[in-house]
Amino acid sequence: MFSGSPAVWENVMRNTVRSNALLVVVAFATVYLVWGSTYWAIKLSLESFPPFMLGAVRYLIAGGLMLLVARLTGAGRPTRDHWRAALITGTLLLVVGNGAVIFAEQRAPTGLVALIVASAPLWIVLLDWLRPGGIRPTGMVFAGLMAGTVGVALLVDPTGGAGSGVPLRETILLVIGAMAWSAGSLWSKHAHIPGSAILLVALQMVVGGVLFSLASVVAGEPGSVRLESLSANSLLGIGYLILFGSIVAFTAYVWLVRTVSPAAVSTYAYVNPVVAVAIGTFIGGEELTPRTMLAAAVLLGAVVLITAGPVLRRARQAEVAVALDT
What we know:
Blueprint: H1 6-45, H2 51-72, H3 80-104, H4 110-117, H5 120-130, H6 139-155, E1 156-157, E2 166-167, H7 168-191, H8 197-218, H9 232-259, H10 262-265, H11 268-282, H12 290-325
Parallel strand pairs: 1-2
Helix pairs in contact: 1-4, 1-9, 1-11, 2-3, 2-8, 2-9, 3-7, 3-8, 4-11, 5-7, 6-12, 11-12
């Protein structure tokens, strides 16, 4: 297939590896920065769009574009199993999970919302333990669960919105959203639905967009929006969410999942909240208090404990297996 001297072949392979390494760096930067900045884009979009309509517009357009991409790449026609999976994940991940973020950002700072959402690994561990045949958490993971609970509690504003934290109602809503996101993620992991990942996510977005649209109509939102009243910030925000948040960053994420280790991909859970807090503080003028910094440290430390626990356990099991073989 390739003719030439071994030196030429080695040079080609070296350039390929370099190119792939560059793509990995670009993909990680995209997921880190774009997903971390979507919290601020949601805040901008809410200037003109009511919450249900925001979700409907974002996911119907993004889902339609992703369906077009799936069709052009030969993904094939969706089956009944695909639509069933899209209904479950679209409801849990987008309508409940992302919907909680949209509603909470009407009254809560974006950085603090992102920090509470970062507690999702806590719920993934607990739900995975409770399912039939689930995995019992290690001591390190239990420590992470307790630390994460403390971190979320530090962010609650008991004054109902008059302080610098997250109002209790929005905190509860975000915790429910994080639980729904975790349940949807676990279901996706164990469902083993065959087919193109792009097709499955496109259907998920379409279903989420339809459900958001129905909720928007029931809530009477369409009559409250006038085209001439849409602000430039809102249009930029929702355009950013559609193009970069739902299409570009997701494509980069899917490519990373297939290219690098799961442990490496999971690092976005540490970085996204930091990016969101930085944008909220330096661009949005949100207050960064000592309590917020303490909560951020505790929550991110909890995520590290939770995600590192299983990795260390597998490493210890591998060491024991090697010792038994020798």
